[in-house]
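It would be a great kindness if you could assist me with a short task in structural biology. The matter concerns a single protein, recorded as an amino acid sequence and a row of backbone structure tokens. Kindly check, if you would, that the fold set down in the tokens agrees with what the sequence suggests. Thank you for your consideration; the sequence and its tokens are set out here:
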Amino acid sequence: MNWASKILLAPVANGDAVATPQREQQPILNLFEFNLPAVLTRQLWERFDAMRGGLLSEEALLKLARLQPERALQHGAYQLLLQNDVVYVWVASDVINRLRRHHRKLKGRRNIRIDDTPFHLSL
């Protein structure tokens, strides 16, 4: 039963009734640690761990670019891996363009093959 339903009508001297709240003895303050970033981070890492990484290839980026307007998706979180080790995690407002920049930079790197850089993406 909520507080509003616990209104009692108390009689007064002239016969009119006046609404008076009757509350149970409950604390007025309950401390609760609300840590949304930690919860979201944990959930993202759980999802990333459950994914098999996709290659950061031009083909994958084209597929994502077609999916983006179709589903109105732009924001996302992603991980870049190097030989299955997480080396970069980020949240982007335009994740496809951000991944394109990573792809372009990685293609120009020496001693890093684009085939060794899978990624995980959560939109």
User: Anything to note?
Assistant: Residues 37-122 form one domain. The chain is about 35% helix and 25% strand.
